[in-house]
Amino acid sequence: MSTVVQPCARCGARWAVQATPMLWCPRCRGVLLSPAPIDAPAKQRNYRWVARRPDQRYRRSAPSERNGPPVETPRYTEIPRWGLLDPPAAPAAAAPRPLAAFTDRVGVLLLATAIAFAVACLAELGRYGILLRNRTRLIDPLLLTVSDYLLYLSALLGLGLGLASAVAMLGWLIDARRDAYARSGRADARSVRSLALGCLVPVVNLVWPGTYLTELVSAPDRPADPRVLRAIRIWWAAWVFGGIVAVAALLWRFPDSLQAKADGVLFTAFTDVVAVAVTVLTLWLLRMIEGRDLFGHARTAHRWVIAVDPHAPIIEPVHPGGSASSEVRPDSVNSTGRDVAVAGIAEDQPVGEDASDREHEEVMAK
Q1: Which helix (H) or strand (E) is 5 found in, with range?
Q2: Which of 154, 183, 291, 349 has the maximal Cβ count within 10 Å?
Q3: Gap between the Cα atoms of 142 and 19, Å rounded
Q4: Where are the chain's structural domains?
Q5: pLDDT (average), residues 102-126
Q6: pLDDT at position 297
Q7: CA-CA distance, 54 to 355, in Å (whole number)?
Q8: For 266, how many CA atoms within 13 A lie in the half-sphere containing its CB?
Q9: Average pLDDT over residues 79-102
Q10: Nearest 5 degrees, angle CA 89-CA 93-CA 99?
Q11: pLDDT number for residue 236
Q12: 3-class secondary structure, 7
């Protein structure tokens, strides 16, 4: 008899190991523990015996007696504020927008700049009218003072708003390029510093803004709109022309003759008109790139359909039939077709009729 046994973890029976150890108890289908000698000490076994009462499995704990009267079922008077917190995920932090304070007001700044330069143009024209009147009459000093202040304030206001509009347009260009390249899964190859230098440095800003705008509308995710490209070229030409006119207006200040100064007033008014036109073109270009019109309304696509007139034959087709072939119209009887009509009438007569009847009908037909 084997001295190596496998105790059952459920019923405690010991089963001798014959060849290979078993896994389940044949009596209660409990788990058999590892094989070990019958008298093996606890150190050589990987299990230990636990003493239990025979009826422990079937015993039930006696219900505890409550002391005192029954109490009310516990409940909450308000929603409990303890427990696991599951706050919603915080939204992703938006990318920093440089010059956001100016960019959000780019339309208002451009409109204010156009109005300021228009007022400056009117002030210059008023000054030129004062100069014309001053050739023969004296001018009231109060009128001269008002004209001076109007000229200086409008010029300074126009320059300040123009600079603010340039900064706002730079911020708009940075945001628009970033969004356009992000839609195609790429990053803008030009840094913010290069965009700022190319748009704000004098003389240099006559060349690079048009290039930046062309790159914007020619993004890889969408084909370039020919109308937008044409608008960019028009704005670019007006922008360069405005820069040339501004430089010429500054150089016109150097001559000291009275006629040169008077002409300088008119040329300055013309410069203000060009500034107004360039500002309005800038606003128009910005709105066109955004898919809106000059007044900020969304543009609607117009689809042209070719209209085809109903088919009307010029010459009436010939319909087959005996009546049509035998009918002779009055206008078809002429000097050349008389014999043809007579021959047709003669052919319609039956063969059995005599010659006198045919001759009579021939005379009547003539």
Answers
A1: strand 4-7
A2: 154
A3: 128
A4: 1-48, 100-289, 333-365
A5: 93
A6: 76
A7: 151
A8: 8
A9: 74
A10: 160
A11: 94
A12: strand
Residue 360 has pLDDT above 60, yes or no: no
Beta-carbon count within 10 A of 365 CB? 14
The Cα–Cα gap between 236 and 234 comes to 5
Q: How far apart are CA 21 and CA 35, in angstroms?
A: 7
Sequence letter at residue 128? Y
Question: What are the pLDDT digits (tens) for 228-254?
Answer: 899 999 999 999 999 999 999 988 888
How far, in Å, CA of 220 to CA of 216, rounded? 10
Instruction: Provide the 8-state DSSP code for 190.
Output: S
Q: What three-state secondary structure class fits 6?
A: strand
> Which distant-in-sequence residues (6+ apart) come within 8 Å of 102 by Cβ?
109, 164, 167, 168, 171
DSSP string covering 72-95, please? PPP--SS----S---PPPPPPPPP
- Could you identify the residue written with the tokens 């360039």? 278
Please return the burial class of 25, using the count of CB atoms within 10 Å of its CB with bins 0-12, 13-18 and 19+. Answer: buried
Sign of CA dihedral 230, 231, 232, 235: positive
Q: Which two tokens stand for residue 301?
A: 């696509």
Give me the chain's average pLDDT, please. 79
Ranges of H-type helices in 184-318: 192-200, 208-217, 226-251, 258-289
- The one-letter amino acid code at 213 reads L
How far apart, in Å, do the first and last CA atoms of the chain sit?
Answer: 152
The answer to whether residue 365 scores a pLDDT higher than 50 is no
Angle between helices 141-183 and 208-217 (to 10 degrees): 40
Q: DSSP string covering 235-271, please? A: HHHHHHHHHHHHHHHHHTTS--SHHHHHHHHHHHHHH
- For 147-156, 215-224, 356-365, which range has the lowest pLDDT when averaged over its residues? 356-365
CA distance 282 to 170: 12
- What value does the CA radius of gyration of the chain take, rounded to a whole number of Å? 53
